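Structure, all two chains, one model.
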Amino acid sequence: MKNYFKSLGIGFLAGLMILSLAHGQSPTEAPAKTRPKAPQAKLKYIPKPKGTLTFTEHIAPIIFNNCASCHRPGEAAPFPLLNYADVKKRARLIAEVTGEKFMPPWHADAGYCEFLDERRITDDQAGMLQQWYAEGAVEGNPAKLPALPKFPEGWQLGKPDFVVKMSEVYTVPVEGQDIYRYFAIPLNLTEDKWVKAIEFRPSARSAVHHCLFFLDTTGKAVKMDEADPEPGYNGGGGGGRGFQMSGGIGGWAVGGNPRALPEGLAWRVPKGADLVLQTHFHPSGKAEKEQSVIGFYFADGPPKQTFADIQLPPIFGAISGIDIPAGEKHYVVKDSFVLPIDVEAFAVNGHAHHLAKTVDMIATLPDGQQKTLMKISDWDFAWQEQYTYKHPIPLPKGTRIDSELVYDNSADNPKNPTVPPVRVRWGRMSSDEMGCGILHVVAATEKEMPQLQASIKQHMADAFIDRAMAESKKDSGRGGFLSGIIKRFDKDGDGKLSEEERAQAREAILQFRGLGEE
Amino acid sequence: MWPENRNLESGRRNRAPIFFLLALLSFCGPSFGAETRDKATVDDILLSITDAKGMAQTPFELRGDVASVLIFVMHDCPISNAYARELERLRQDYGPKKIRFQLVFVDPDLKPAALEKHNSEYGLTNYTAILDSTHVLVKATGATITPEAVVVGTNGKILYRGRIDNLYSAWGKSRGHATEKDLRQALEAILNGKAVPNPRTKVIGCYISSS
C-alpha cells in the first residue's frame, strides 16, 4: 500500500511537470497531439484553402504518378505507396523528403535541360503534400480515387531476346564497407550481336547499388571467377577487373529505368564474349542473396550510326592527379575538350564518390553562347544516373566542353566518410575519389566519327603527358611509368616536350594496351 | 528505490492521474511548430504490454537493471534495418551490465509472423520484441521516429533520447561507419553514475505514423 502511494505521488509529479512544460516553459516539450510543422523548404507554394486537400483527389495523383513505380512490391523502394493507408502512415516522411527534394530521387538541377523519365515533382505538388499532412492527411471521397498506373510486371522493356543469369548466388555481408565484386557470365554467342537495350534485374534489391556491364573476349574474367571459392571475384591487382575489356555496354543504378539506346544506336557484342558484371553493394543489415538476371534486346542488324563518350577528365580522373588535402573545402577538378566535328549530345552523366559537391558540364559554342549540359549542385554518390536528353542537343564543331567537379574534404561535409578527414587520392574504393563528366554523342555526319574518336584518344594521351610532366617536375617518386615517358621522349633533355616529341609520346601512349579503361 | 516485484494491478491504478492530466492537456489545443514530443519521464512506470512471444513486459520497470533501452524500429525502414548488427552488438555488450534492451515495432499493420521473419532475417531473435500496434509505448515515451533509442532510468526518467550513432547524416547518406556513438556514450555515462553528456540527439530515419 505504501508503494502504491509512492508511485501515485511520483506519477502525479511527473504529470504536473508535463503539464507545465506543455505551457511553453521548454521548447523541447509539446503536447502529444501536436503535429510538427512540415519542413521549411524554400518551396514556391501558395497554400490551398484550408481543409480542402484530400488523398483521393489531390494526393493520390501525385503519389501514383511519381512514387508508385518504385514504391511497389518487387521494386527497389523499401515500402509500397499504393493506397491511402500506405501514404497516410508515412505522410510526415513523404512531406519532408519531397520538401527537401530527397525524393523523388533526381539530381540534375531543374531549369537547364529537359530529360526523359524525369522523376521530379513541382513545388506546388510538394507544397500540397506538406499542407495535406499538416491538416491531418484526410482521405476524401473514395469515388474520386484515380486508378493506379498499369505497371509492367517483370521485364520492364518486354520479353528479352536473350537472358542470362549469375550462375551462383552471392551472399552480401550484413554490414560494413561497400563491396565491389565482379561476376563473369559466359554468353556463348556464336555470332556477333548488336544490342539496343539491356535490362538488369538484381535479386538483392536493397543491397545492390549499381552495376556496370563489361565484355571480355579473353576468358580471363571467367577464370578468375572460377578460381575464387566464393561466387564472383574481387578484382585483379588493386581491385581492377583484371582483364583487357573489349567494351563497356552500359550499366544500371538504383532508381534507374531500363531504357534502350536512342533509335538507330547499338552496342556490339562479339561472339564468344563473356559478360562481366561489376556490382557495387551496400550492406543492408541482413544477408541478402544476389543472383542478377540480365536480359538483352537485340537490334535487327548493325546500327546506322555509332556513338562516342566524351569523358572529361578521361579515365574517371585517374590521370588528373586528384589529391585532396585533408580539410580542403573547395577542391576543383576540371577539363576541357574542343569538338572537331558537329555532334548531337543524347545523354550525359557524372561520376564521383562521397566528397564531390557539384558536377557541371557546360558547352561554349563557337559564337560564345553557353549551354549547360548538366548541373548537379548537390551531388549524391547514391544516385549515379545517366540522364537522357528529351531533345538531343546539337553542338557544332569548335564548341568547347568544360567539366568541373568540386570536392569538400572538410569535417563540415556530412558526406565525408572519414572523420577526421584524411588526404584523399584517386582510387577505386568509395573512400577514394574519382571524377568526370561524360557526354554521350553521335556525329552529325556519321563518316566524321573517326575524327571525333581520334580527338578523344589524343585528348587522353595529352592528359597522360601533362600528368607525366607534372609528376616529373614534382620528382615525387610516384611516376615510374609516367616520368619514364618524359625521359624517353624528351630527347634534348630540357624537361619539356616539343610538338614533335609530344606527337611521338602520344603515339606510344595510344599503343600502350589497356589505355582508356576505368 | 522501486520494489522489484510489484503486481501489475498497482501499475494500472497508477495510471489514473496521468490520464486525467493528459485529458487536461488535450485542451491546450494544437500548436504547430514543435519538432519533438520530448518527455522528461515516461507516463507510467508500470505500464504493461504483451511482447511478440505473448509474455507480459513492463519495459519501464527496472527490476534490478540499471536502465531499460527501448529501440523504436520499423521493419521496412532502411535506416532502422541498417542498424541490425549494431543493435545486436549493443545488447551483447551492455546486456551483461544490467542494461535491458527491447525492440519496439511501430508499424500498425505489421503482423506477428512478419515480425518474427524480420527478426530472424536480421539476426535479432535474442531481443525482446514488442509489437506496439496501438502505439502505447510510442505515446508513453514520446517517440516520433525510427530508429529512436529511449533510455529509461529510475523513476521512469528518460535519461537519453535520440540516435544510436551518427552513421547517417541525412536520408540516404550513410558514412559507412559511425564516428559518434551517442547511445553507447550515454550508456557508459549511466553505468558510471554520471550525467549523460548529450541527453537528446536528432534521429535521421522514418517517422512514426502518429507523429
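The CA atoms of residues 49 and 57 of chain B lie 5 Å apart.
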